[in-house]
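Hey team,

Filing this mostly as a record. A colleague (T.K.) asked me to run one chain through the structure pipeline before their review meeting, and I want the input and output archived in the tracker in case anyone asks later how it was produced. No errors, nothing strange. Just documentation.

Input sequence:
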Amino acid sequence: MIRTAAIASLLALAILPATAQTPQLTGNWTFLADVLGTPIYARLTLNQQGDKLTGDLNGDKLEGTVTGNQIHFVSKDNGGGSDTVQGTLSNGTITGDYIEVDGNDLSHPAHYTFTATLAPPLQHLAPQRHDFTPTIFYRQFSPFYKPVLTVNPGDTIHTTTVDAGGTDEHGVNRVLGGPAPSTFKEHNRETRSSSTWFASNSTATTPSATTTSSAAYSTPTWPSK
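Output structure:
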């Protein structure tokens, strides 16, 4: 009986490391695809039960499996299209390839690469006031611009911007004029939680004024596909 128990214990210890190596993928991920050189962001939600995956990719239901650090799933839309994703998890980031099939053009699948990172958990912090003085004004939206602020629901941002002629509040011409310039644009970093703000000289997606503004931020919604 003792020998049998010892053998059983050794077998259990041998099995434990393999179980511990199974990644836990449940959560909300930011899916960044490289589509012909253009970065495209999507929302990836994964629910893991053992080696099975369910969830959605930008609203399309998905099913898949996890084998070690290898991840495979297929998402399907209502129009007959699909995304077949194969990725590898390393240091908290999923990288890999996916094949996109357009429901209106099934005979021409497209192949792209992607990276996905887990969105940080929502922090329920007390509302804060952010005073920001912009030094650079961009004339177009771009995911390549470095974020200048990360804000949470209830935060207030006090900042300045330029008018349609590119002139700041001191009458100094800071940038080439254009239609409806403003200081900030909004990029949602997490799922319905906080947002990352970029300095920009373009149409605002949040409340703003032509010179000095103080805008309260409310919880954003993730854009649909």
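Quick notes for T.K.: The two ends are 61 Å apart (CA to CA). The CA atoms of residues 3 and 9 lie 10 Å apart.
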